[in-house]
Protein 1
Amino acid sequence: ISSDGLISRKNSISVPKYSNKSIPTLVLKADTHQTLYLAGLDGMASALAIHTLPEAEKLDEGTALEKVTPFKDPGKLACGFVIPKGDLQSKPQFLITITKQGMVKKSPLGDLPGPSSQMFALVKINPGDELQQVLFTSGEEDLFLVTKNSSAIRFAESEVRTMGLVAAGVNGIKLQDEDHVVM
């Protein structure tokens, strides 16, 4: 996805070269059998079959994001991800969402819907908050949150119970004044 809000896929194993005019805001490695998930700052997401994305040799030859997704404003896009390849049945995997205000939510990867023209709630975002990060975990990881004002916390992922997609999550870190989570 380009900074101008153009989306495309490139059929290449090599890393594309970019000029100053075409710097991407999101580059992901995937194959045409996978699903691309795009999540907005508001926690709403879209799922797209990668094979349906327009193919383009150059980034500035892509198609406007709003023509192939329900997203109308590319500036409101928080992140994009592709589910890692592997057998979800033999090894449980989870999706962790983290907001700027420190809310943490763990959901099973299997709860994610397949490609659709409809938006879905990836995470409920409280008023004044924004989706910051999406991570994949095994369920046995340690989570480490860092704030703008250099506060940090580390805790076991097992301390966060599994929740459905429409939940907001639990408070992962207490913030002071205008502080917010940066990673």
Note: The mean pLDDT is 86.
Protein 2
Amino acid sequence: RRFMEQAEKALARAQKRHTAMSMLMIDVDHFKTVNDQFGHVIGDKVLSAVGHVIKRRGRDFGFAGRYGGEEFVVFLQNTEKQQAKEIAEGIRKGIEGIAIEERMIPIKVTVSIGLSCCDAGECGHNVDALLIAADRALYQAKNRGRNRVEG
């Protein structure tokens, strides 16, 4: 809820200032398998590590929040599509580099990322529309093989 409140305010500022903005929807690939195979404690470690990478990589441009079980959302202020893709790719690569091991078994962590953008002066009046577009792009990323950025 706090993320949505922040996003509504940021969207209003972007509309007023005629600046671009972008939204990333991030989903941990095969997270249920991690929980089933290694347990919820390890699943929580994975989510914490993913959240840390997202926070570190996106903090200069916006803010992030956990959106669901293994989903995160990032609001990128003053960020056009190309720059948003670069940030998203940096997040994806950073998460791919996470090293977690349980019972001497390395756990490979990857994410799929959906991206939605609006150019300066063309942002709609609704954060939900950006989320829906990012979610569609996320499912496109999953359908095209996961561990990728689409949008």
Note: DSSP finds five helices and seven strands in the chain.
Protein 3
Amino acid sequence: EAGWQVEVTLLHHDSYPASLHTGNVRDSGWANPNAVSEFKNYVQSAVDRLGQILPKETRFFIANEPIAALFNGYLNPEGKWPPGGKNAPKSMAQAMVNLRDGLFEAGRIVKEAGFLPVIAQNIRPLSGKFTDSLPAKNLDDIWNWWLLSALVHGCIDNNFDKVCEDEAEGHFVEEVGLTF
């Protein structure tokens, strides 16, 4: 009644669900085989509880800058962000696929509840001395566009090679917010 517009953020900079820690970095956090179903359950519970009090068309940010957290968690050799450590890059690809699939599910749940599924993605050019190399260009695509291509266009690129191996049915986000 006060005219406030509420927005809900379901995931912000959280690359590592602590409840899915197994002690083995290869299958912990978003790399855990249960990550998608656990995130789906979390989103469903949030929608069920908030759906009774929030107006329809409320924006639900299914994620806010999720790739930034994954890069820091899996590629930071100092291990400052979990899971971290030298072996973490081995599981980053699985973590990203699980994150994408979890966000697909989140978008469906939020939309079916009558809310507006949105995402905020950190977009920025990667810098450094290797920016002209092929690996750097692939990392730039993965950082900036891989997840958005999936959630906006339905492009399923499991090989991280800018090729859609499959197309997802449905539209998973209604709005995209960019941070730079």
Note: The mean pLDDT is 82.
Protein 4
Amino acid sequence: MSRSLKWTLAVSAVFAASSMFSACNKQEAALSKSLSEGSTEVAAQTSKSVVVYFSQTGATKKLAQVIKEARHADEFELLLVKPFPSTYDSTIAEVRAERESKQWPALVNAKLDVDKYDTVFLGYPIMFGTFTTPIYTFLEANDFSGKVVVPFCTYGSGGRK
């Protein structure tokens, strides 16, 4: 390849790259300007999220807080009318009995105004290989038709020391 052809190709490549970056910068500037001028319009188009969770030991609550902050979501902590027992073995016995009888525990706040939200993040600890029993109560009390439900869970491998 001749020296002049190499030079021509190099100049063409530099010109093409600079044109491409210039176009990208112009698009970025236009997008930035439209976002700053129309920020209420953009905000109106974003989905509204809520983080719903039940936390036995606080681990699920910590993860729920991270999601809440990252998504700028509302928070809805599920609370038991009668809390689980304070010891590991007693809690396991109670949860086992609830599962066998399919009698889910009562929640102080089982009903959520689901219509306000597009996305529901649902957090829970794992017990017996699946979500803990208060989640059954919550799921039975609410209709999630047309909603995006994103489950998340924590697992601590038991409480025995």
Note: The longest helix spans residues 3-37.
